[in-house]
Write a structure and sequence with these properties.
Elements lengths: L7 E7 L13 E2 L2 E2 H13 L4 E5 L2 H9 L3 E4 L7 H9 L6 E5 L8 H13 L3 E8 L13 E4 L5 E5 L17 E9 L1 H9 L5 H6 L5 H4 L3 E6 L12 H12 L1
Parallel strand pairs: 1-4, 1-6, 4-5, 7-11
Antiparallel strand pairs: 2-3, 6-10, 7-10, 8-9, 8-10
Amino acid sequence: MEFDDLNACVIIPARFRSSRFPGKPIAKILKKEMVIWVADLSAKAVGISNVFVATDDNRIANVVKSYGYKAFMTDNKHLTGTDRVAEVANKLNYKIIVNVQGDEPMLDPGDIVKAINLKKEFPDYIVNSYCYLKEGENPNSLNIPKVVTTEDQNLIYISRSLIPLSKNNQNKNINIKKQVCIYAFNKEELNEFLTFGRKSELEEIEDIEILRFFELSKKVKMFKTNKSSLAVDVFEDLYKVEKALSRKI
């Protein structure tokens, strides 16, 4: 299949002023900026001409352009990355828009293709992904959004708290799912998200943007990624990712 036959693009939201890690998108991992790692992997899924970066900072835009990718400058007052993606999606002509977070430098391009195909199969659903917590990951970490789904992979809830939790507090035999930030939408869904105009109550409490779709009565279809996620949330995560990438190269 030719990339253009997908009728899908990837938009990577990249904000410079992250509260937990300022300048995160252009932090270097093995001498290459993190947002470029994500863009290169996204290009393997949809082609370089279908990858865009949505940013509010010229420093990020200049780096992106220097590698041959397209950058769109967006409003610096957006509440979330998905709001930023929605602004750029309105300037493009694609049926499916995949939001890939710029802090997932080890994502599998096959998971982007999975998201696109699942969106085609379930056009009335938002699509998002998860993986299982690995040994050594702290399920109580507030930096890890935990996911609960029905048996047919519909999202019930997502929280920074430990969910699901056994009544007897015995979670040893429960495989905890964590969110992986690959989403698929259509333009209309993104516009509804943007024009909501504020964070929903649950979104504000949890600081998890997909929860806004619950207020819009949107169903969310989840899928398991091909491999575990290793996202960069805080500065210290860079060393873990560098170590993991060094083993692959």
